[in-house]
């Protein structure tokens, strides 16, 4: 028995709404953080935003102004993008953050000095720079997806049950675009502070001392 036309429309509307709701729930928003006019904006974006387009980010993403202490040593489940203009801002937003997939965009033509920033659990890095040189956009795979530490749905802070702690040190001078993005890793590092004394600021942070590290330098 055929349904009346009105009931057909009702069913189509119902299933259409259900499919749309399922699609929206299945979308994974990315996190965008940037500094603008002495404020920090934390945004949740359902689509990629053109690098350093602050107006578009405020228009297309759900953004809020946050205080600096709320993002120190933060942990991100989603992909993280950071727009910055100097190493001070980048250090504030990134240093000792836990994130697996990271994109960093330098939104100025400033030449950056060599400073090292620490990142926990980094798997993939993408960088973009406004410095017009040979390497404006680059990407780097730090650890393969087959590593057991990255099989979890969400990144987690190091615990006693983990054998290795992944820590990457990023040289901020890489944004000057003078060479291609590179990295090298050292396994079974018993103590970061003893093996790399020039990373003295590492001593300021409370980290497990009974673990072995896989240390990656990105330059």
From TrEMBL:
GO biological process, one term: mitocytosis
Keywords: Signal
Highest taxon above the source species: Eukaryota
Keyword presence, Signal: yes
One family name in Pfam for this protein: ECPIP
Record-annotated membrane-spanning stretches: none
GO molecular function, one term: identical protein binding
GO CC annotations, alphabetized: extracellular exosome; migrasome
Signal peptide: 1-26
UniProt KW Signal keyword: yes
Identification of the protein by name: Exosomal polycystin 1 interacting protein
